[in-house]
């Protein structure tokens, strides 16, 4: 029996991780990464920093990360002491803690030693994995409460299992490319949407080439998810395809919203306040989409395991 206290703790961990990711995105978008100089964990050598916008944004991000880190640690310890016989829950809680530690260390390293955009983009990618792990723990605890998290009783075709993980990996690459564009400050490489600088295929070099590649990759991701939905919709298995169908619908809606928010990013680029909002919206949709695809991939893995065992 999963207690209400544990479910509340898992939800708090997830919400906290989500706030950490958004705070990190805010730091990047406002250029506040050096708001505390090269000091860590202090800010410009002080426990309470000077009142400047950049230092307050950066230091608030650190404070939120610290508090959430404690919540994540408590969640893991609770899971280890009370629910370690549930390997899935232990894996999700442990994954959240591991990725939280890694992202905190990467954040500290970025302050002490300036990093290349490719490394800074990986920081967002690690945060994405931490949020996904924490969300999976919430979903698991909810399904356990409802009694819908049962041992696999049916299996999915091999191509669905392969497609689910292929889409998951591909989505991670698309999101990473978007984060790389932000840290390269190449957002303005393509003016206009859906055309890029008024052209169907722009000059494929520099900022325009990177942004155009991201747009094409996002369009391909939409086609992959739409095809996956068609495949699971045609399936004749009652379980687990019903769960995969639901996840595929969510993923299709989210990737559509993600592409739309990318268009909004372009058209609001000249309005700083609106652009900040659309940028955060873009990050939110990307994070939730990745988490949903993670759940789909894990569901297909569980049922793929049954198939392999039964055939041996």
From TrEMBL:
Pathway note: Porphyrin-containing compound metabolism
UniProt keyword Nucleotide-binding present: no
A GO MF term: oxidoreductase activity
Location relative to the cell: Membrane
Iron found in the keyword field: yes
Residue stretches spanning the membrane: 59-78, 90-111, 117-139, 159-181, 201-232, 244-268, 274-298
GO BP annotations listed: heme A biosynthetic process
GO cellular component: membrane
Domain of life (superkingdom): Bacteria
Topological relation to the membrane, as annotated: Multi-pass membrane protein
Pfam family, one: COX15-CtaA
Cleavable signal peptide: none
UniProt name for this protein: Cytochrome Caa3 oxidase
Taxonomic source organism: Paenibacillus elgii
